[in-house]
Amino acid sequence: MSEGTAKKEEKPRKFQAIRGTRDLLPPETALWNRVEQTAHEVFATFGFGEIRLPIFEATDLFARAVGGDTDIVSKEMYSFEDRPDARLERYKHILDFETTSFEMNAIRAQVHDLQIVLSDLRAASRQGDVPDTTANQRNLENLGILIGELVGHSAGEKRLSEADLARKLAAIQRIGRDLELAERVSLRPEATASVCRAYIENGMQQLPQPVKLYTIGPMFRRERPQKGRYRQFYQIDAEVLGGSDAPAIDAEVIEMVMTFFDRLELQGVQLDINSIGCKDCRPEYVKLLKAELSKPEIMERLGPDSQRRIETNPLRVLDSKVKEEQPIIEKLPRIANHLCEECATHYAAVKHELEMRGVFFRENWRLVRGLDYYMRTTFEFTAQGLGSQNAVCGGGRYDGLVELLGGPPTKGIGFAIGEDRLILSLQESGKGPAQQGRDVYIAWMGERAHATAIRAAKDLRKAGFSVELPPVEQKFGKALGQADKLGAKYALILGDNEVAEGLWTLKTLADGSQAKYTEPDLLVHLKRQL
Ligand code: AMP
Predict the structure, then answer these.
(1) CA distances from 440 to 222, 255, 510 (A)
(2) Minimum CA distance residue for ligand 1 atom 14
(3) What are phi and psi of 49, to 5 degrees?
(4) 420 in contact with ligand 1, CB cutoff 6 A
(5) Number of CB atoms found within 10 A of residue 366's CB
(6) Ligand 1 atom at minimal distance to the Cα of residue 393
(7) What is the pTM of this model?
(8) 426 and 432 Cβ atoms separated by less than 8 Å
(9) Confidence at residue 338, expressed as pLDDT on a 0 to 100 scale
């Protein structure tokens, strides 16, 4: 600040993490790493490869894959319009010109400009700078036709009347205004849509099928935050795409989740499974369910949410947790009794395959997925210590999804594990990591000892020990106190005497005992102890 401008000090804003997001701190992050490392190891033994995906995608992708009517897409996505390219923005202005003259030379000059704009827009569209929406495709195609007609006119091949010219030019102006130059993008609310997009885009249908992929990372949904529910949360997601829909694939995917949870010693794991039929048998069941729910004596006993769902998505009524609705739901028709023969056979075989793998499950006829492309197997894992948000993994078969996104007909099944909840449950049952202390705290004093301490720290770290080397000299008493606070197991004491003798003092902080070692002996001793 320059002299004399004694400004009133502004109190700086105290920034906080955005509601529903949080920092993951050490030592908890050690548990996150252990969970993710275990996922990498277990999934690799089942032949899954890791895929890393963008955090944001075209909003349309999620609208298609997750469904425009779902809460996730209609209410919970973080969406924004990307910034249009400045060059393309200028083209929009060129297209949206003012027509002043139909004189041939003027038209020729204009046609020349329009041709350049068109060819650039087409190139930009190929490169993905212009969003490849259906409206843009249509507009670019029409623009090509209109400009072609103007070229014909100015070359004298097919003359247009002034009225026709005016109409064509107005149509071009309209297209200029309508072109969408900026993509609407969203932070991903889930990973399945992106995995399917990547499968199609990278031509993975050419690989040996099925392709088994997994991914770990943050997802974003604008939900009401509470314990176990965040706006940025993490999922461990796996998908099997292509090949057959053999029941053994469903069972093996479920077995993989169970193996992963077992390895982590997750407590109170409960697996629920169900079959929700296919596009042949489910509509019949939904019709029946809807008819039942619409009976006045039933409808009037349902809450407003369920009443609304009778129309929008009757299957979701089965999801309801409202206490008063439970006795009514229990008496509703069950899908198991309405599966077509193929679905019933598939479901029976999935159960048999699970039994052969020693995976315990509970059949839960109310476990549904509200989206059309979900079919047959659905499953959910719950775990202890999570209160009302106790689902740690949800999954199911979705044979129609890849096709819905413009790919070939492709079988698919997958799951998403809620990593935040998995971690919470592990912590609740005492499986969290203990405070991570240093192995060795180096208490040094004196110029010569400083150089030795730096070398000792380098060697100990190379051997894999966690070492704290204080940046400035401290009195030994203070250094030992500091070592204690950091939970160090040992203090390596380096003073002038130690350096001169070549014998280093190692103090065990738990019992206060100490002994002297030569440098190589010290390493051997520590390796044996730690
Ligand atoms: P879904 O993608 O909705 O099937 O969810 C799969 C799993 O992700 C759930 O079983 C939860 O464990 C977890 N999950 C979903 N939404 C959230 C959220 N807002 N916060 C934390 N975990 C979530």
Answers:
(1) 45, 42, 12
(2) 418
(3) -110, 150
(4) yes
(5) 17
(6) 10
(7) 0.88
(8) yes
(9) 95
User: Is there a contact between 234 and 216 (Cβ–Cβ < 8 Å)?
Assistant: yes
Separation of alpha carbons 144 and 146, rounded Å: 6
C-alpha of residue 386 to centroid of ligand 1, in Å: 13
pLDDT score recorded for residue 1: 47
Give residue 96's pLDDT: 80
Could you tell me if the CB of 190 is within 6 A of ligand 1?
Answer: yes
Q: Whose Cα sits closest to atom 7 in ligand 1?
A: 418
d(Cα 110, Cα 117) in Å, to the nearest integer? 11
Q: CB under 8 Å to 172, separation ≥6 — which residues?
A: 95, 114, 143, 146, 147
Sheet with strand 79-81: strands edge to edge: 56-58, 184-187, 79-81
Token reading at 256 = 């993989």
* Residue found by looking up tokens 């997802």 in the block: 219
Give the integer Cα–Cα distance in Å for 196 and 327.
Answer: 39
Determine the Cα–Cα distance for residues 521 and 492; give it in Å rounded to an integer.
Answer: 13
Q: What are phi and psi of 56, to 5 degrees?
A: -125, 150
With a 6 Å cutoff on the Cβ, whether 386 touches ligand 1 is: no
List, run by run, the mean pLDDT of 10-residue segments along the chain (530 residues).
62 95 95 97 98 97 86 91 84 78 84 90 88 89 93 88 89 90 93 98 97 98 94 98 97 98 96 95 93 92 90 88 91 94 97 98 89 87 89 95 95 97 94 80 95 96 96 94 95 94 95 94 91
Decide: 392 in ligand 1 pocket, CB within 6 A: yes
d(CA 114, CA 150): 10
Pocket test for ligand 1, best of 421, 422, 425 (most atoms within 8 A of CB): 421
Contact 509, 490 (CB under 8 A): yes
**Structure confidence at residue 252 (pLDDT):** 98
Ligand 1 atom with the smallest distance to the CA of 189 is 2
> Which atom of ligand 1 is nearest to 72's Cα?
3
Please report, for residues 78, 81, 192, 283, 433, the alpha-carbon distance to residue 58 in angstroms, rounded to integers and kept in the order given.
12, 10, 14, 30, 39
**Residue 179 DSSP code:** -
Q: What beta strand segments (E) does 408-480 contain?
A: 412-418, 440-444, 467-468
Q: How far is the CA of 80 from the centre of ligand 1 (A)?
A: 23
Sequence-distant (6+) residues with CB within 8 A of 423 are: 28, 31, 32, 35
The CB-side HSE value for 107 (13 A sphere, CA atoms) comes to 21
Instruction: Please enumerate in sequence order all residues whose Cβ is within 8 A of that of 29, keeping only pairs 6 or more positions apart, or say none.
Output: none
Return the SS3 of 49: strand
Return the pLDDT at 5: 56
Stretch (H or E) spanning 74:
none
62 C-alpha to center of ligand 1: Å?
16
